[in-house]
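User: Need the bound-state model for aspartic acid:
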Amino acid sequence: MFNRRKFIKASAVSTAMLAVTKTSFANNISNVSSDAINKPIVISTWDFGVAANADAWKVLKNNGRALDAVEQGVWVPEADESNQSVGYGGLPDRDGKVTLDACIMDENGNIGAVLALEHIKHPISVARKVMEKTPHVMLAGDGALQFALEQGFKKENLLTPSSEKAWKEWLKEAKYQPVMNIENKLYDKVAPQKLPGNQYNHDTIGMIAMDVKGNLSGACTTSGMAYKLHGRIGDSPIIGAGLFIDNEVGGATSTGVGEEVVRNVGSFLVVELMRQGYSPEEACKEAVMRIIKKKPETAKNIQVGFLAMNKKGEYGAYAIQQGFTFAVCDTKKQDLVIKGKSYY
Ligand code: ASP
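Assistant: Bound-state model below.
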């Protein structure tokens, strides 16, 4: 297996030699015996990834396609009313509107995304329709809604009484102050209604799966930052920022304050680092370090986490702050939750 040390050595040799090394890397990947590859496998962000992985696993264990697995997996948090940072029940923007962002990417480099989509419970499936049924890769706002309705999606009110109550509470001070790892706070069984209005914030489900054929796909879906400006888009629906898949190398996804991920084209960076021989965790760490280096003062007070898997089914994560978790489901264990390492 091509590792980072070998890559660093290779970097020191001539360009001609490097070209040879790159070819060997591609050969190494295709020469890995299928027994050595940990597949099928699905990984996703946060504790709520466990339930999402379980549904993705139903597809994977029946020899289904990774693309179907990630779509069906993220339906779980999208439909979960108690999850206030993804899909139905997501916290609204400052105007009280629930606007959803999602993207999906398959093993052939096909992509689809919806941005600031309102009234549709499963934005990931609209993103997939954009990918499969249109000549485009992204649809936003009213146009995305119009397309979804034409495709037969049901128009629904996504603002639940509990999220509306939290928003009204927030309006009293109307202070935009992202809170880190809110997902953990909710899953630590703090009753959501006991948290003050401004304690509700963000967290996204990003999922990467590899099917029995060894093909990779990914999905990323969120209601974004709570109480954001109407029309604000983060990293989650932006291919290369919130999600990136390269079927020769691996996949990556992100969660946290999207502005900093977009600035660094985070998920694309992680995949490119894995192409150079970094392990998934090393690649995630390097992407986090770019964010910290570029804006050290900002980084002190925000959370960003990256999660990645390579073509061998090895995975890893890294975050700015403690508290980032991810869920893993493979043939060995179906409900594993791992604490991501962090800079602080
Ligand atoms: N990345 C999301 C956004 O910026 C939020 C999150 O994952 O915490 O919209």
